[in-house]
Amino acid sequence: MENSIFFTKFWGWYLIIFFFVLSLNPKRIKQIFNNLQDEKFLIISAFLSITMGLVTVLWHNIWELNYNLIITLIGWCFLFAGLALFIFPKKTVKWLIITNVKLVQFIYILLFLVGLFLLNHVYQIIPI
Predict the structure, then answer these.
(1) Which are the contacts of 64, defined by CB distance < 8 A and separation ≥ 6?
(2) 38: number of Cβ within 10 Å
(3) Whole-angstrom distance, CA of residue 26 vs CA of residue 118
(4) What is the DSSP track for 27-52?
(5) How many whole angstroms separate alpha carbon 19 and alpha carbon 114?
(6) What is the greatest pairwise CA distance in the chain?
(7) Distances in Å between the alpha carbon of 78 and those of 34, 75, 123?
(8) 91-95: Cβ within 8 A, 24+ apart
């Protein structure tokens, strides 16, 4: 249970922080896409994504139909995204660049709501 609380706080804060960073500076999204053309940035991004995903999956691979499932799915998504960047870098970057910036902003709004849900689960801001 301690792992669940830790990962719920970690991913909740992570999603909230990145939402505000990308909302306050939307140019950052295009900058990230442009930086994926740089092989060094790509390798570091893939490595961090694999690391964050693998740590989450190894310590929190809980497939229950509650907030634990959200944490597990986030971990698997990060792991697969990192692997895709390592194994198929050109195809993955090409797919990411084709992706519309507005779609990315919509996804970050959705992730913001997921972050709020996770933090609310831990801190009980609004009792459910």
Answers:
(1) none
(2) 11
(3) 24
(4) HHHHHHHHHTTSHHHHHHHHHHHHHH
(5) 11
(6) 46
(7) 20, 5, 25
(8) 93/36, 93/37, 93/42
State whether residue 76 is helix, strand or coil. Answer: helix
DSSP 126: S
Single-letter amino acid code for the residue at 79:
L
Q: What is the pLDDT of residues 90-123, one digit of tens each?
A: 888 887 777 666 677 788 889 999 999 999 999 9
> Rg of the chain's alpha carbons, rounded to an integer?
15
pTM: 0.88
**18 vs 1, 61, 80, 109, CA distance in Å?**
26, 24, 20, 10
CA atoms within 13 A on the CB side of 48: 6
Q: Tell me how far apart the alpha carbons of residues 26 and 9 are, in angstroms, rounded to a whole number.
A: 25
